[in-house]
Amino acid sequence: MKIRTIAIAACLMLLAACGNKVLVDDERTFDNNVWNRFTPERFDLDIDDADKYFHIDFTAQVDTALFRYDHLPLIVDIYSEDGVHRHIRSHIMLKTNGRWKGEMNDGYREVSTRAYEYFSFNQAGTYRYEVKQATSQYDLEGIHSFKVHIEEAKIDLDKL
Description:
Blueprint: H1 2-17, E1 22-29, E2 34-36, E3 41-47, E4 54-62, E5 71-80, E6 85-93, E7 95-96, E8 99-100, E9 103-105, E10 108-119, E11 125-133, E12 139-141, E13 143-152
Antiparallel strand pairs: 1-13, 2-12, 3-11, 4-10, 4-13, 5-6, 5-11, 7-8, 9-10
């Protein structure tokens, strides 16, 4: 009985180890559901191997009574520790044909998107990842929270 229990536990640990490595899974909540255009949200991450690829997902929780756009435009700035800077534009599509996407969660509409698939960093090291809302509004009303999820991607060479 003990051997079977140990074998099952070892298999479960092996399966868990085979999953994608999560680098960032962090959410920021905004006071009064307002995201200021000049206040970037900062996420730090360590890249141990420049040959790895990553999936980057964004999630926004919005107050549908206050938010009046079909999408949330974003500016992403990535800084390496030696000063290399990448500037990328992205967005989260919140509506399709005028209808909200996603699910309701705690009174807010939660919409997720795969922002980047198989993203690579130039070199190993520590990176600062900053995200800003890119609308014309200084204070964008209706954004309750914003989340970044970055995980290591498994590449299937047979599909390339």
